[in-house]
Design a protein that fits this description.
Blueprint (H helix, E strand, L loop, with lengths): L3 E12 L2 E12 L3 E5 L6 H8 L7 E6 L2 E2 L5 H4 L2 E4 L11 H10 L5 H15 L14 H13 L5 E5 L7 H16 L3 E5 L3 H7 L2 E6 L2 E7 H6 L6 E5 L5 H8 L4 E7 L2 E6 L5 H11 L7 E4 L3 H9 L12
Parallel strand pairs: 3-8, 3-9, 6-7, 7-8
Antiparallel strand pairs: 1-2, 1-4, 4-5, 9-10, 11-13, 11-14, 12-13
Length: 319
Amino acid sequence: MAEKVVEIENLVKRYRELVALDHLCLSVEEGEIFGLLGPNGSGKTTAINCILSLLKFDKGSVRVFGEEMRPDNYRVKRQIGVAMQNVAVFGELTVQENIDYFCGLYIREKELRRQCVEDAIAFSGLSEFRKFYPGKLSGGLLRRLNIACGVAHKPKLIILDEPTVAVDPQSRNRILEGIQKLNREGATVIYTSHYMEEVEQICGRIAILDKGRCIASGTKEELKSMIKTGEKIRIEAEGLTPVQEKEIGELRHVYQVGYQDGMLEIRCSGGKHNLAHILEYFGKNEIGFGRVYAEQPTLNDVFLEITGKELRDPVGGQQ
């Protein structure tokens, strides 16, 4: 059984009348990429700041690597790497100098630090930009630099708080591939994002926070099994009658049917052969049809059904 890298029990954090964390319980196992989801204001960043002992909390406990997390527990903090949403690098230092500076906070030995800096530059794809100053970098490259500074000392626990906000697709892919590489090399990762496809792509277990509480957790498959929304099917079908639409709605596992402008939309709750059953009905009733689309539930469907909210990214778009 994997060891617990992070254990949060009954964590409470208040800001006067606002309860930011309401008896939050979470655990992160060694060697996993753990996704932390939630709408804005759900408590994700507050939880991270409590894990890092950057915030005092009112009640509960936080243990990292089996030890109580305190502001002066530097032995544990040396094993943690962080890249927060707001980029934090020095504008007067080059890319290489920035990475060297942050790595030097943890590693004093010159030769080891030099190798760690080179590894971080290669990992982040910044080799040709090593002499650039941050002000000359694109948004995507700046994000890569921010992450490289946070992980250059090769920490055992890496916390990434929305690291791909407003970056280009190339940089996003580079960042995600880099995170998976770090994980394969032994790092445990806590990952927050407003981009559901990212979380679905790289995270093994996921927790959904809302109003400071963990309202659902598990693997992608476990979370999807918790909701009513299952397979979505769309079929081009001209001339469908109201009676036929009603009969399709009465088929097994079908719970919602809509028909407009020659397009039939069907939502199913569970079931493995929904499309086959629907097409069988079409055949028996000699109903002609065109293109057929079938889509399994996504993590976004889980989020919307469980929280009842749209997930919005920090620059204002819907995700």
